[in-house]
Specification:
single chain; 326 residues; mainly alpha; two-stranded antiparallel sheet; 11 helices; 48% helix
Length: 326
């Protein structure tokens, strides 16, 4: 027998030693892994602070955000919109339908285009929304202010919910406020709390800008919210919002039907034009009742075209190329 061969006992001993050694290594490795996991756990997702610019453009002016209260206020609103995922996505989708209606009216009245974002934060671009304070519509007019700026409000009509007419009324207010202040930030703050309050506080606190005022929290946040949602709309991918053109809501073509006589039953009227009562209300959210009392005025009711009411083909209308990745 060859003496260089190992005995069975020796082989067994070597195998046992190896197993013990490997087990020890695994044990040490497991402990190290557990320690590393405790110190830096593996997570399925991360919440990171959104990138914050040092300055932003608003209404043709560069707003420096480096002062502590402005930096922190803008950060608060940008973080809120960035992580308010479903709502912020919905805002961009709706804007594809409503910005084409709003922008030309702002331009007609000489109001900076950036004020379309005021409608975004006021109502989430929902023309039917109503607040606890009874402000109504996309531009959130109180009844008295709505009437002051030319909107008809009756038991069967509420033009605060009429997108184009309410936008025109908002422009008149904004123009009046700018004539008073000559500063669009003060104008924006006044839209939230009223010109009387802003004028009084500017005088009492001895400053020129709403950025420097001590105000109730809602009004303090207001201009920063407008600027923050603008930042996301202009750079959605940077803040984690990934959309394609097909995700956006398409404008739906309608034809206008002028009426000057009362309509006793709007459901019957809708059926006459081949649509449902619900469709009539959706495309004319200013109709408040099941009937329309014209009171001697003429109104134009929008009737959607039947073949445009479907997404049988993906949406192809893109209002702003910055919103999508395709």
């Amino acid at each position: 027998m060859d003496k260089t061969r190992l005995s069975n006992k020796q082989i067994t001993g070597i195998l046992i030693s190896g197993i013990i050694g490997v087990s020890a290594c695994i044990s040490l490795s497991s402990k190290d892994s557990k320690k590393a996991e405790d110190e830096r756990p593996v997570v399925s997702s991360m919440t990171v602070s959104p990138p914050l610019p040092a300055a932003v453009a608003f209404c043709g002016r560069t707003i420096d955000l480096t002062r502590y209260h402005m930096h922190e206020s803008f950060d608060r609103e940008l973080s809120s919109f960035t992580y308010f995922h479903s709502t912020t996505l919905l805002l961009i989708k709706r804007a594809n339908r409503y910005f084409p209606l709003i922008e030309p009216i702002l331009k007609k009245y000489g109001i900076p285009d950036d004020f379309k974002y005021l409608a975004v934060i006021e109502s989430h671009l929902d023309p039917r929304v109503s607040s606890p304070a009874r402000a109504v519509g996309m531009w959130q007019f109180l009844e008295g202010t709505g009437r002051q700026y030319g909107l008809t409000i009756t038991p069967t009509v509420d033009e605060r919910c009429h997108v184009e007419k309410a936008t025109a009324a908002a422009c008149k207010y904004l123009k009046d406020a700018y004539n008073k202040y000559g500063d669009w930030i003060n104008v924006a703050a006044s839209y939230n709390t009223g010109m009387g309050r802003i004028s009084s506080e500017l005088t009492q606190q001895g400053v020129d800008s709403a950025f420097d005022l001590w105000l109730v929290e809602e009004t303090t946040r207001y201009p920063y919210r407008i600027m923050a949602i603008k930042q996301i709309f202009e750079n959605p991918y940077r803040y984690g919002f990934v959309l394609t053109t097909r995700d956006l809501y398409k404008p739906i073509k309608t034809k206008g039907i002028s009426v000057s006589a009362d309509i006793a039953n709007l459901a019957v009227f809708a059926q006459k034009y081949g649509i449902t009562y619900a469709d009539l209300k959706r495309f004319n959210p200013w109709l408040r009742d099941r009937r329309l009392i014209t009171g001697g005025k003429s109104y134009v009711l929008q009737i959607p075209e039947e073949d445009k009411l479907y997404y049988k083909q993906p949406n192809t209308y893109l209002h702003d190329s910055r919103w999508v990745v395709n």
